[in-house]
Structure formats: structure tokens, C-alpha cells
Specification:
Layout: E1 6-15, E2 21-24, E3 32-35, H1 43-49, E4 57-62, E5 76-80, E6 95-99, E7 105-114, E8 117-121, E9 131-142, H2 145-150
Antiparallel strand pairs: 1-2, 1-3, 1-9, 4-9, 5-8, 6-7, 7-8
Bound molecules: zinc ion.
Zinc ion binds next to loops.
């Protein structure tokens, strides 16, 4: 029999390789909560978190490959403007959903508009970044049957959709 699935709640501050803060849970009232084994947090972080206990504070370093993936040059593409769903007021930072090389749906960001050509980047904004999570484990409990059925954590820091 495998161990019961757990809900882990934790506070985190995420910094990139230059030490710049990208995101933090410290601004919210409750820590972030996730159901183990569902891919709700990046793989490298989930593996490290699984070994911690309530009250533990750690700096967890996650390489790009174990975070949002390495940067893929093939996902930077130039397309004619008229191939995009809209050509009105096209600006850097605009986003479009389109199929990637394996047919997967990716979010492409406009990184440059040159005349009638648009340069798009389908990489995750944090692709290629080694990340550091400064974490503090706030709670660990067994998941309820309902949480396991839904595939996510409920309650404080989890989903509040019902
Ligand atoms: Zn639910």
C-alpha cells in the first residue's frame, strides 16, 4: 500500500538566478496549499518538499530543467502579421494560443513587431531560469477523499470553487 496522499501548505519566496524576487506567498493571508503527486508545483520543488516536515525552512534550488524547462530556440518564430488572430494594435507582450511543434497548445508572446513580421516566443517566461525557493512548511495533513477525487487541495490556500 502506498502512503496516503497529503496536502502540504507552505510559504515561499521565489527568486531567479540574479536574486530578483519573482513571486512570494508572504503577501497573501494564507500559505499556498497543494495536493501531492498532481504536478501542481514544479517537479524539482515537489521532490524537495516531500522530504520536509512542518516548521522546516529551506532554500531549495531548482535547475531550469526541473522548473519551467530549458529555453527552446525553436519556439522563437517569425510569422507574417496576417497569420495572427488579430492584427489590430499588435504590441510587444501580447499573447496568443497556438500549436507548438508537437501539436501542444502553447502561449506565444509577441517579442517584436517589425513591419509586417511578428516575432513570437512560445517559451514559458521562466524557461531557462534556475530558480530558488525560500520555503517554510506551514502544514501537512492527509488529503480528504474529496480532494483526491478533485485532484487539488481545498480550504485555506487551496481551491475555493465550492
Ligand atoms: Zn475541488
Amino acid at each position: 500500500m502506498s502512503a496516503p496522499q497529503r496536502v502540504i501548505s507552505f510559504h515561499y519566496t521565489l527568486t531567479d538566478s540574479t536574486g530578483e524576487v519573482i513571486d512570494t506567498s508572504r503577501d497573501s493571508e494564507s500559505p499556498f496549499a497543494y495536493l501531492e503527486g498532481m504536478g501542481q508545483i514544479i517537479p524539482g520543488l515537489e521532490r524537495a518538499m516531500a522530504l520536509l516536515n512542518v516548521g522546516d525552512k529551506r532554500k531549495i534550488e531548482v535547475t531550469a530543467a526541473d522548473a519551467y524547462g530549458t529555453f527552446d530556440d525553436q519556439l522563437v518564430v517569425e510569422v507574417p502579421k496576417d497569420k495572427l488572430p488579430t492584427t489590430e494594435d499588435l504590441q510587444e507582450g501580447d499573447q496568443f494560443q497556438a500549436n507548438g511543434p508537437q501539436g501542444e497548445v502553447l502561449l506565444f508572446r509577441v517579442i517584436e513587431v517589425v513591419g509586417e513580421t511578428v516575432k513570437l516566443d512560445g517559451n514559458h517566461p521562466l524557461a531557462g531560469e534556475d530558480l530558488t525557493f525560500d520555503v517554510e512548511v506551514m502544514g501537512i495533513r492527509n488529503a480528504t477523499a474529496e480532494e483526491i477525487a478533485h485532484g487539488h487541495a481545498h480550504g485555506e490556500g487551496g481551491h475555493h470553487h465550492h
